[in-house]
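[Automated response] Your request has been received and processed.

Submitted sequence:
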Amino acid sequence: MANRFFTKINYSASNEDSESEQQALQLTSNDTVLCISGSGARSLDLLVDTPKKIVSIDFNPAQNYLLELKIAAYRALSYKAFARFIGLQPCGKRVATYQQLTPFLSAQAQAFWGKQPKHIKNGVLYCGTWERLLKNMLRLASPRKKLIEQLMAAPSLEVQRSIWAKKWDNWVWRLYLKIISNQFLWKYVVREPGARLIPTGFNVYDYMKARLDHMGNNFDLKTNHYAHLMLRGKYSPPCVLPHHLRPENFDLIKKNIHKIEIVTASLINYLAETPYQFNAFSLSDFSSYAPPEAYQHIWQRVARVAAPQARFCERQFLVKRNPETHCPTLKRNAWLEKRLNEKDEAYIYTFCVGVF
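Generated structure:
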């Protein structure tokens, strides 16, 4: 756990489609939710459904400092100022705006952000390792810039499919995918600790090829916010923004922002000690970072703090597991999983969803 991966901001934008969590969790105003922080996007998105409380947990303090900063921006700013400060819109005064937010930050968060002037100046929305990696990959794809814009401007899904099949999906694209699917890259260059948990024999290239073909043939790329991150490196019109970045949701989130409680701890330790009983669990892709024994213990402890009929949503990326083998009270919803696997607009994930 000493890996620097767990002390820096790895994810800063919305790398998931919270519509799936909303469908799986069906939150009400009486629900207490446990949500893995990551970039903070899901915790903020879930506020749109106005649950009673969201405990946002992450082992990595840097990810929670990012969420703390975003929460401070909701508290102190108007939507226009918020969008400019985080980097959704251009701004030359972010450092000055940051000074308005410091009264809303813990001493630890202030100390962290005091050492990150470049992130503040550039806007924190795209400061994560993953977001910067996507931008660097786009530099490699610069010869296909015109083709990318053809895809993103396709007037219909039929036209987009034709461009994907006839122009995009060629040897250049497949070579690119082979490069970014190479586990050496993830283990020793990106230093992604989850890469060591990918099962031997799991073909990362085949999986990524299938999921990205699914993207190109089934989603309107010009409105898909995850496609914008991949193909443009940022959100840009006519992208449909994640819930927490939409102007029409700003006041609702601002009104409910106090409902988020930030916890910096390992999931396994927190679940052993928490006094809360939870009605919903938004567990993101924790299987990518949990060795098999830890994965088992986490699900057993989730069951301990789950209220009757509690709902859960676990995304899985390259490490596929079956939580029901460790938790007999868990009942998976195969129909909903299939639907989310097909409809989730982040498209690189598969799902485990259901109830206790």
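Summary generated for your ticket: The chain is about 50% helix and 10% strand. The mean pLDDT is 94.
If you did not submit this request, please reply to this message.
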